[in-house]
């Protein structure tokens, strides 16, 4: 009897593993098939979408696509919201409302709300759950619910080469210079100069670049070692896989099942 019980348990375990593998394979197929590119835009007819740009599936809320222009080689993560205009099916005129440059990465769950002009420069990287908006509620009339008062709109501009940390908020009227770093959770309004690091709510400059003195205050950690010239992407991938295999290999004298 114990042998039969073990046999049934083993069969059930194999079936569960097979179902799990099938579900994962099916989901990968759905993700590949549902991704949006210039060649496979699906229902999302953007004003322009560049070569190599990819919107991961599932997408977040997207509307006003004719007024959204995406550059080349952008990566838009899952559940990212991209909107132009206050609601769908509006005629927003001849000019783009949301412009995203080339080489931009938008992290999973981020939102870019462009009721008026929002411009994101080339090579900007956004962590997950970043919120960018050109519109804010007004509360001038104390007798009217805030949500029913006409909002204020101001253009937003994010210069090239910026890094925006997780859960940061970029408010209407913000203008970020080149290569700005926004700390995780910061709330940014107003103008931020080139080569600055901002943090806090509201965000303030906590570090800036001086051409003569370098970063002020000085960086606390040494600069990372750059990748040697001539190293190919294939060599980097092989190196990463080698390091991964070494981390997973059992220690000397330890069986693969040890610690399970």
Automatic annotation (TrEMBL):
Residues 250-260 have a biased composition (Low complexity). Keywords: Acyltransferase, Repeat, Transferase. One of its GO terms (molecular function) is acyltransferase activity. The keyword Repeat applies. The keyword Disulfide bond does not apply. It holds the Pfam family Hexapep. Residues 220-260 are annotated as: Disordered. PANTHER family: ACETYLTRANSFERASE C18B11.09C-RELATED, SIALIC ACID SYNTHASE-RELATED. Belongs to the transferase hexapeptide repeat family. This is Acyltransferase.
């Amino acid at each position: 009897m114990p042998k039969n019980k073990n046999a049934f348990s083993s069969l059930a375990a194999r079936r569960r593993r097979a179902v799990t593998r099938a579900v994962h394979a099916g989901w990968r197929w759905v993700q590949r098939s549902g991704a949006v590119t210039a060649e496979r835009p699906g229902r999302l007819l953007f004003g322009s979408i560049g070569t190599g740009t990819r919107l991961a599936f599932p997408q977040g809320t997207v509307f006003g696509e004719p007024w959204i222009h995406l550059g080349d080689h952008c990566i838009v993560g899952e559940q990212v919201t991209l909107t132009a205009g206050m609601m769908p099916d509006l005629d927003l005129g001849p000019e783009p409302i949301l412009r995203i440059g080339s080489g931009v990465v938008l992290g999973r769950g981020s939102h870019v709300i462009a009721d008026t002009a929002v411009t994101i420069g080339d090579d900007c990287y956004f962590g997950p759950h970043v919120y960018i908006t050109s519109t804010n509620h007004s509360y001038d009339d104390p007798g009217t619910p805030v949500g029913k008062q006409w909002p204020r709109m101001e253009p937003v501009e994010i210069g090239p080469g910026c890094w925006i940390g997780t859960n940061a908020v970029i408010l209407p009227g913000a203008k970020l210079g080149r290569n700005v770093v926004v700390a995780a959770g910061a709330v940014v309004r107003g103008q931020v100069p080139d080569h600055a690091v901002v943090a806090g709510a509201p965000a303030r400059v906590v570090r800036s670049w001086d051409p003569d003195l370098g970063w002020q205050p000085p960086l606390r950690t040494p600069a990372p070692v750059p990748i040697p010239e001539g190293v190919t992407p294939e060599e980097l991938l092989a190196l990463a896989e080698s390091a991964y295999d070494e981390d997973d290999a059992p220690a000397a004298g330890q069986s693969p099942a040890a610690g399970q």
